[in-house]
Write a structure and sequence with these properties.
single chain; alpha/beta; Rossmann fold; four-stranded parallel beta sheet; about 40% helix; binds beta-D-glucopyranose
Length: about 375
Amino acid sequence: MKKKFLGVMLSVAMVASLLAGCGGSSGTESGGDTPATEEKTDEGTDESADTGSDDGNKLVGVAMPTKDLQRWNQDGTNMQKELEAAGYEVDLQYASNEINTQVSQIENMISNGCKVLVVASIDGDSLGTVMDQAKEKGIKVIAYDRLIMNSPAVSYYATFDNYMVGKKQGEYIEDKLDLKNAGDKKYNIEFVTGDPGDNNVNFFFGGAMDVLQPYLDAGTLVCPSGQTDKDTVATVNWDTEKAQSRFETILASNYSDGTQLDAVLASNDSTALGVANALASSYEGKYPILTGQDCDIASVKNMIAGKQSMSIFKDTRTLASKVVEMVDAIMKGGEPEINDTETYDNGDHVVPSYLCEPVFADVDNYKELLVDSGYYSEDELK
Ligand code: BGC
């Protein structure tokens, strides 16, 4: 299979680069959730522009949004581990979901002479100026998981197929409610998606709605709260408490009379957790189908306990490996492998992308996907 082949190629490349002795040590502080405070040192110099040359500089800046969500910790750790194993020096920073913090962290990475930037943005629209600085210095930028919008500086995008994530969530609901054969039956559904500044939301919600909207149009699915448009169902910062409080209001206004809730489309696990908390405190009917994404430990535990039906599994090891391959190709003056040149227009250009494949996990297959693959130990899920 293609994936296996890539895995083998990556291992070969990593061993080769280690044998070649290009191992820089990880001298940089791998970030806590605090603003980077280092002084800029080489502003105005243009030495880091030569990304293809082997001047011994192997610094890769990795900017992650927050430590609050489990997945970004895994993404950061996996990437650091793999980049270092491949001989690169890594400056890994987390920004507490503060846009200004992320901007200053990236400025520092640029000043410190990084050659490649890997950025999972907090708000895809807020990095324009710092991206311009990166471009001026010839630094290649890989947008990680979330696309950086309206910037010519973004060279590549590595992510999971975000449209497919939403589609699989919608299909899960379609399948479990057997909507194709619903006849005259009607089912109640509510919607919760993520941060309005995250471009992925357009794909998650869009993919799910491409499956579910026809059933809403036909009256097979009914949304008692009437909240079906993307902006109304958004959750700032993908925040669990915000999702919970919105959902408590929905339950109080529409379901307190015993109305049955059949399904909740939640775009990820942090919002699904908010929904599950609200259901626990404010809903007495039969538990609805509840979707999610990331396979965070709390959500997998909820899945095992019957409080969340599924979660999309995006193996962060796969994405990290792909990005390490990309960085390696760039550092060696080559072109990284991409598999999509059409989908992700950031408003400035269509960004060459590598899309990894998401799969769904539920109580029937989580052991095989998550435990047997070594992603989690059985104990972590207890
Ligand atoms: C990621 C999801 C994550 C969400 C909240 C999205 O951009 O693709 O995996 O759950 O952000 O952090």
